Amino acid sequence: AIKELKSLSLLYIDQNNIEAEGAKAVAPSIKELKSLTQLTMCQNNLGNEGAKALAPAIQELKSLTGFYIHDNNIGGEGGIELASAIKELKSLTKLWIWKGNKMNEDTKVLLKSLCPDME
Fold first, then answer.
1. Is 74 helix (H, G, I), strand (E, B) or coil?
2. CA within 13 Å, CB half, 104
3. Residue 2: which residues within 8 A CB-CB, separation 6 or more?
4. Quick check: 43 and 15 in contact, CB under 8 A?
5. Which residues contact 50 (CB under 8 A, 6 or more apart)?
6. Phi, psi at residue 4, to the nearest 5°?
């Protein structure tokens, strides 16, 4: 029923340990939230499969200005797909993704291209 909240601008799904299966379940609804400006999904143990499930939905959120997804054990292919989706978000001004994620070098390079001053 999240997708019915068409005017929702902030969505916090934090510290719920929804894991990959939860990410797969909420991704189709999140994709429909076109007015969403802030999405926080920290500390949910999403892993690579959860990140891969969220990436296409995140890419559709053209109004998103803040995305917080730290502490989810994301790396490898999941990190690359998520970074590619983030790259499409031209309105994004805040991104917190590093802490607790195991980004590989390819993902770091892609994210660095988005944020040249990032360490």
1. coil
2. 10
3. 8, 11, 26, 29, 30, 33
4. yes
5. 18, 19, 20, 22, 23, 24, 44, 72, 74, 78
6. -75, -15
pTM, entire model: 0.84
- pLDDT tens figures, 30-78: 999 999 999 999 999 999 999 999 999 999 999 999 999 888 888 778 8
Q: Are 71 and 99 in contact (CB under 8 A)?
A: yes
Q: Which two tokens stand for residue 67?
A: 């995305």
Determine the Cα–Cα distance for residues 53 and 113; give it in Å rounded to an integer. Answer: 23
Residue type at position 39:
L
Strand partners, 11: 39
